[in-house]
What does this fold into?
Amino acid sequence: MGFKTGIVGLPNVGKSTLFNALTRTAAAQAANFPFCTIEPNVGDVAVPDPRLFKLAELAGSKQIIPARLTFVDIAGLVKGASKGEGLGNQFLANIREVDAIAHVLRCFEDGDVTHVEGRVDPLADADTIETELMLADLESIERRLQNIVRKVRGGDKEAVQQERLLKAAQAVLSDGRPARSLSVDAEDAKAWGMLQLLTAKPVLYVCNVAEDEAGTGNALSAAVAEKAAAEGAASVVISAKIEEEISQLDADEAGMFLAELGLEEAGLDRLIRAGYGLLGLRTYFTVGPKEARAWTIRAGALAPQAAGVIHGDFERGFIRAETIAYDDFIACGGEQGAKDTGKMRVEGKSYEVKDGDVLHFLFNA
It folds into this structure.
């Protein structure tokens, strides 16, 4: 089960520098000119979760396998991208393939790094990107509505539903609002998702600040945070330069470096967790002497669906799940202690898996 977050933004805002740090590689070029990233770079990163290490320690696990999240570095968009300006069409197609958008905004002053618009204004940058995505969505909607006219006239149920949703999205977009501002009923959720509208994707604003502002942010990042709150979106403050430096250090060196800067944790950890939460993801664990492993599920997943993340046979032949809450597992000193104190529960097919559950599945092969 792969979940992708696309890193987008105008050229020279720190996207590729951030991606380099995220993936601990130099796969993405970081250069001071537009379009230095021609193809999207893809990297899987571990989701930081200290719970996994505590579980492994108690169980004496030989191997630790964290949950993972995929980030896609998408080349810089410019005004007019929806009409093919720059390398717009290609990049818009790349955005369409991701599940969520991490929108990097320049919140730092640096005369040595040019800005494609000749000024530093993260709110204007955000509006530029959002406008291009909305224009691309409107064009896509108009084209799709024309293509389904005959099916709608013929009474095709799927086409009728699609037309209704497309027109609803068209209305909010024409009003200058992104498609994600539209409330969609549960029965329409699947069809809505299949439309793959760019502005329907959840957004995380990433405020890239100067190194000495990584802990506190600045007036520009505060304005972005206010914008995010008004939209029901999320925002994080990060210094891409600091994160790139940290990515070249070992764990001990990184810890000392962060302490010298007065930072409790790397900004990337916050970013990854924010991306994880943005996608509505949750973690459950399997723990034993061989390995301690974190598994990713969507919020609201039932026990058989959670089992299916490990293997399809687990879901098809699901019988029950032996379940221990994380806090109980730790408090009881491990699985045996949880059993002895009655903290292990047996849950059936209707059980909604909670974040942090330690699970063992029983199934028919």
Remarks:
- Residues 25-38 have pLDDT under 50 and may be disordered.
- DSSP finds 15 helices and twelve strands in the chain.
- The first strand starts at residue 4 and ends at 8.
